[in-house]
Amino acid sequence: MELTERQKRIIQIVKENEPISADNIAKHLYLSKPTLRTDLTILTMTGILDARPKVGYFFAGQNFEPLLFEDLYEKSISEIMVPPVVIKKEATINDAVTMLFMHDVGTLYVTENQVLLGIISRKDLLRSTISNTSINKVPVAMIMTRMPNVVTLQEDERILDAGYKIIQHQIDSLPVISKDNPALVIGKVSKTVVLKHFIDEAMHLKK
Questions:
Q1: CA dist., res. 54 & res. 38, Å (int)
Q2: For 62-118, how does the pLDDT look when each residue is reduced to its tens digit (9 = 90+)?
Q3: Taking every annotated instance into account, which residue ranges of this chain make up the domain CBS (predicted)?
Q4: End of a domain among 40, 64, 88?
Q5: What crossing angle do the helices spanning 5-17 and 33-45 adopt, rounded to 10°?
Q6: Within a domain: residue 206?
């Protein structure tokens, strides 16, 4: 997969104006900073650009390698997903809080016979514990975000697709559903999982 015309233009702008902030790159392109977030992430992760806090972007001098892009972004979600942390719909809010801290996760998936019914985020639980004094009685089904209002991934989607969805929807993790049976949750992909994949690939390239 080749760089897009916009990504090539970003590289040229950085070469001509380094160091340059993301805000100023956006101004050159007459676009908003959030619109460029994914492009800048890709260019930084592939080693084409270097980003320094409070300084800006530099041209790192690395040539774009298609194989590197394939390793980082084109792999299937099924290759990096991890087991989901699930909870039954009858479980209480108190049970959910305990499970969240036991597994050190940001999101729980509410299931019944592996069928995804909804999700509960850390924010949902915080809101509920503050506003509700009966957390030992209220079931999680009362506060969860229900299907089909949950953003999901199919197991054959790309890591790049996961990154787009996480950024676009500003969420911690995505449930991975079966391609053959979209009702079944078979894994999850989180910000941490994606970041670990990038770090593992970078370490592998250094060897």
A1: 19
A2: 655 554 566 667 789 999 999 999 999 999 999 999 999 999 999 999 999 999 999
A3: 77-135, 144-207
A4: 64
A5: 80
A6: no
